[in-house]
Design goal:
Layout lengths: L3 E4 L5 H12 L10 H5 L5 E6 L2 E14 L5 E12 L8 H15 L4 E4 L13 E2 L2 E8 L7 H4 L6 E4 L2 H14 L14 H5 L9 E7 L2 E11 L2 E2 L2 E2 L2 E8 L3 H12 L6 E7 L5 H4 L7 E7 L2 E4 L2 H7 L7 E7 L5 E7 L4 E4 L5 H4 L5 E4 H7 L15 E3 L1 H11 L12
Parallel strand pairs: 4-5, 13-14, 17-20
Antiparallel strand pairs: 1-2, 2-3, 3-4, 5-16, 6-16, 7-14, 7-15, 8-9, 9-10, 10-13, 11-12, 17-18, 18-19, 20-21
The protein binds coenzyme A.
The site of coenzyme A has 18 residues, from helix 1, strand 4 and helix 3.
Length: 409
């Protein structure tokens, strides 16, 4: 079967959307895609064609990613991956992933990133899970704060806003949280549909927090569920809650947990170290509903990627990366200066040195932001080296705080 992968033409947009609907099983009458998000960066939207028919789709968005130390690395954010059920398991995705990686490389992006519909798809293409996606549920009636937090007076207030104010204010607040390792940029076309839900009919509630008249946080939420026997069993679902100041972050949580006629508050994107846990009088009530794969990273330019982040340890590591196509590249990382260069293992003939460690590209992607150690992967494959080298790599890649991606894409 010959598969052609190329950027879609203007007149193919409708077929592109239709394929998305078929791959993800959206009912035809639903607004299957969200307009601004669908229309953003169409010059990076690809289709896979067989006999002239679109049978697969996928695209890159130009996102930057915050790495340890605070630098923002340019990446290609893969999204909208779908293959028609009529052509599944014939290599269509494989062909598209090659085209999307080539598109990223052509633009000088040092990594490809994505979030996955299933955990089983992308490791084979070199992606490692660099953050955890964490969902929590807190019962409102069990959400009292510990006295030290509860008694701290907070001068702020919360007020509702509508779409115009939200559009004008939220991006700047989000931008102030971008120091968080694992966070990504949100282009202008992301907001109207991915967060505000246009043209979906979900009633979304939006609030801002203000301190001394200055907006310093916001939350967006839905309320779902039913009443049972005259008692509300409804749930607030937090879609986004952003505040650079942890005290404001907690004030927004307190607001949500105090809303009447709901039984609980759930959030599908929280950091594992969200301060809410230790603010609760009973931290066990910060109930983790799930903890699975969040941001996946595939290194495309290892030297650039490893040079972009900083390291707490000062050590030198010679390592090799095996990619999914069986190609090995070798690097020397000087953690003290955050300098990663190809070789000298590349010239092993003259230096005579073996790399200290060999890792699969998905392992490097997984450890890059510090969410996990190299040691975690030794038993499952993808790491070759002495225990001493593995433990040195663990110390080098470790970070003081947990990375988190709190943006859907
Ligand atoms: C997931 C999906 C894109 C795979 O496309 P595809 O064209 O069938 O994939 P390929 O034929 O290129 O498969 C490549 C390899 O990945 C494996 N694979 C593909 N999808 C897989 C899945 N969901 N789970 C486990 N393995 C999978 C294949 O078995 C194949 O393995 P092999 O090389 O050992 O034979 C397609 O099934 C689909 O559109 N699913 C619904 C929408 C979706 O989930 N999209 C992904 C959004 S992140």
């Amino acid at each position: 079967m010959d598969i052609e992968v190329r950027v879609i033409r203007d007149d193919e947009f409708e077929a592109f959307e239709r394929l998305d609907r078929r791959a993800f099983q959206f009912a035809p009458e639903e607004p299957e895609v969200e307009e601004s998000w669908a229309r953003g960066e169409l010059d990076r939207a690809f289709a896979a064609l067989v006999d002239g028919e679109i049978v697969g789709i996928g695209r890159n968005y130009s996102f930057d990613l915050t790495v340890p130390g605070g630098a923002r690395v340019r990446t290609g954010a893969v999204s909208w991956i779908g293959v028609s059920p009529t052509h599944r398991r014939r290599g269509v995705l494989t062909a598209m992933m090659a085209a999307l990686a080539a598109d990223s490389r052509d633009r000088g992006e040092s990594a490809s990133i994505l979030t996955a519909s299933e955990g089983s798809i992308y490791r084979r293409f070199g992606y490692g899970t660099a953050t955890d996606r964490v969902g929590v549920t807190i019962e409102s009636a069990r959400s009292a704060f510990v006295t030290t937090v509860a008694t701290r007076s907070h001068a702020g207030r919360v007020r509702f806003v509508e779409i115009d104010e939200a559009t004008a204010m939220f991006p700047a607040i989000y931008e102030q949280t971008r120091g968080r390792v694992g966070s990504v940029s949100r282009p202008e076309f992301w907001w109207p549909t991915v967060l505000f839900g246009y043209p979906s009919k979900d009633p979304r509630f939006m609030v801002v927090h203000e301190t001394a008249g200055k907006v310093d946080g916001y939350a967006v939420y839905l309320v779902g569920g039913t009443w049972s026997g005259g008692v509300s069993d409804r749930t607030i679902e937090v879609l986004d809650l952003q505040a650079p100041d942890p005290a404001v972050h907690l004030a927004l949580w307190r607001f949500l947990l105090d809303i009447d006629l709901v039984a609980r508050v759930s959030a599908g994107h929280v950091a594992i170290d969200d301060p809410l846990r230790w603010a609760l009088a009973d931290p066990r009530r910060f109930r983790i509903a799930y903890r699975n794969d969040g941001l996946h990273i595939r290194p495309l330019d290892v030297a650039a990627l490893c040079s972009a982040r900083t390291y707490v340890a000062s050590d030198v590591l010679r390592f090799a990366v095996d990619d999914a196509q069986g190609h090995r590249s070798e690097f020397e990382l000087d953690a003290a200066t955050s300098t990663c260069v190809p070789g000298p293992c590349d010239s092993r003939g003259s230096s005579g040195r073996e790399p200290d460690l060999v890792v699969a590209d998905h392992v490097l992607g997984a450890v890059l932001l510090g969410a996990r150690s190299v040691t975690e992967f030794v038993a499952s494959g993808g790491v070759t080296g002495t225990a001493e080298a593995v433990s040195r790599a663990d110390r080098i890649f470790a970070t003081p705080t947990a990375p988190a991606l709190l943006t859907s894409f």
